[in-house]
């Protein structure tokens, strides 16, 4: 489950959204080319501009839907937990054994303590046939880990290492965990590059998720 904050023309509305509703919102965002940004807690921000005709004029309004998971996953995604989640994703028929309280899939077995942790933190979904899959928050969290971004602090006034007059540098670098990097002349520009990169990779991720759910 997610906490849902909808920003519309009249203000904001708070509510809840299920995993199914979150996927529906992502599908709509992909179809309408809205900006999507997925976050390491397993949540997302979908934003777009709404245009409204008022008499002769068209006015534009920023709109957004933010989903924050009831169980944020960022801290739960330790290296060991990520490995277990990748195991679950590696086979089609990962199973939960309700008697031994373990998860299995072909040649691997996730022991009871780790199995309990995966379930308690909402990282997996077990259906009524005891089939196991990664939850949406786990999928988002795993993806967003690979795209943690930052911009570097500009040097400001500095003496060049070789001597000479003091210089002011406002240069900043936009950096992403995946290897993306852009050298820019100021931090605002670096932030724009980072936002663009986040929207690009989040959009691709959402498209792949939504396509995987649509029967061919
Ligand atoms: Zn990246």
Q: How would you portray this structure in words?
A:
This protein has 216 residues and is an alpha+beta fold. The chain has 3 domains: 68 residues, no CATH class; 64 residues, no CATH class; 58 residues. Helices cover 33% and strands 35% of the residues. Strand 9 and strand 10 form a beta hairpin. Helix 1 packs across helix 5. The radius of gyration is 22 Å and the shape is flat. The mean pLDDT is 93.
Label the structural class: alpha+beta
- The radius of gyration over CA amounts to 22 Å
Largest β-sheet summary: 5 strands, antiparallel
Q: What is the domain total for the residues?
A: 3
Q: How widely separated are the two ends? A: 28 Å
Q: Cofactors and ligands present?
A: zinc ion
What is the mean pLDDT? 93
The number of distinct helices, counting runs of at least 4 residues, comes to 5
């Amino acid at each position: 489950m997610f906490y849902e904050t909808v920003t519309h023309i009249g203000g904001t509305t708070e509510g809840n959204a299920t995993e199914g509703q979150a996927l529906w919102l992502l599908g709509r965002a992909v179809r309408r080319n809205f900006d999507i940004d997925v976050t390491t807690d397993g949540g997302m921000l979908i934003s777009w501009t709404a245009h409204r005709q008022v008499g002769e004029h068209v006015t534009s309004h920023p709109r957004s839907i933010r989903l924050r998971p009831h169980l944020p996953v960022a801290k739960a995604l330790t290296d060991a937990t990520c490995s277990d989640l990748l195991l679950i994703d590696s086979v089609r028929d990962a199973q939960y054994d309700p008697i031994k309280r373990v998860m299995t899939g072909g040649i691997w077995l996730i022991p009871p303590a780790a199995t309990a942790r995966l379930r308690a933190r909402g990282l997996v979904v077990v259906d009524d046939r005891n089939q196991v899959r990664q939850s949406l928050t786990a999928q988002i969290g795993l993806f967003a880990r690979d795209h943690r971004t930052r911009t570097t602090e500009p040097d400001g006034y500095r003496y060049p290492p070789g001597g000479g007059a003091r210089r002011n540098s406002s240069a900043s670098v936009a950096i992403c965990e995946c290897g993306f990097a852009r050298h820019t002349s100021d931090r605002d520009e670096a932030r724009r590059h980072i936002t663009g990169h986040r929207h690009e990779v989040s959009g691709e991720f959402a498209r792949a998720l939504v396509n995987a759910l649509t029967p061919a």
